[in-house]
């Protein structure tokens, strides 16, 4: 267990390092290990990340870093580990194919592999290439045993024992074929939904705006679909969303809004909009940027059945007293270490290979 504690200590140090980067301020602190080597360099990597991907705004990058700094505490990491029976007799090399929809989206898989004592082979998305190699270098300084056990590649994956791959429904079919002979976790596209009853407070709906708009709605934990009772007054919903009105000042978001609005209008779809968000009645879960789909429900019991039947398409259900394992309004982008993507326990998988 000592070696696991050493790895935990390294992640705690990384959390402390990341605590210097938040939306409140970027502040170089005195008591952070290896700061002289890494602080200025990481600031530069943030700049590069913004330049390479215009969805990675400063606010979104710093939100991701602040979230991870709050997550990587000794208490959280020990709680996470003690929930599992980790006993690795022979370390393996685990390949991770990462998505690039939001900053550091594959980081949970990355630390899961390392904390269990395996080595990691990372194939990053071209949309998110700047931050993780730098943080990996920090970890090698924080914990000697990580050196030689973290590899990044842009080539075809070779010489690995297991794989965790995340992609679209289309790429997942290829992953399932290519990796059928290896222990694997293959993640497909998922979306999150919110169940509205009409009893929500103004504060609830303002918090829901975080679930809808954080990372421009590009995350699998982002709410892209509403279920509302028949006769629901959408003015209440729009009033809650209004706190995010300044999003339309982002050129890329505005372009998507204008484009999707034009498509809907030319197709003569019925839609409601408020100048920066459109809502459209649609049975699909995945809505385009600047759009939320909605569907009416007759009763909550039938809706529970529907959501259960579609559970393989849904990452989070945001609601208030509606269903077991629901996510509170405003909390989809604040998962705990033990809130596993797709409900697949990554540490359990890594302990079994």
TrEMBL record:
<protein>
    <submittedName>
        <fullName>Acyl-CoA reductase</fullName>
    </submittedName>
</protein>
<dbReference type="InterPro" id="IPR008670">
    <property type="entry name" value="CoA_reduct_LuxC"/>
</dbReference>
<dbReference type="Pfam" id="PF05893">
    <property type="entry name" value="LuxC"/>
</dbReference>
<keyword id="KW-0521">NADP</keyword>
<dbReference type="InterPro" id="IPR016161">
    <property type="entry name" value="Ald_DH/histidinol_DH"/>
</dbReference>
<dbReference type="GO" id="GO:0008218">
    <property type="term" value="P:bioluminescence"/>
</dbReference>
<dbReference type="GO" id="GO:0003995">
    <property type="term" value="F:acyl-CoA dehydrogenase activity"/>
</dbReference>
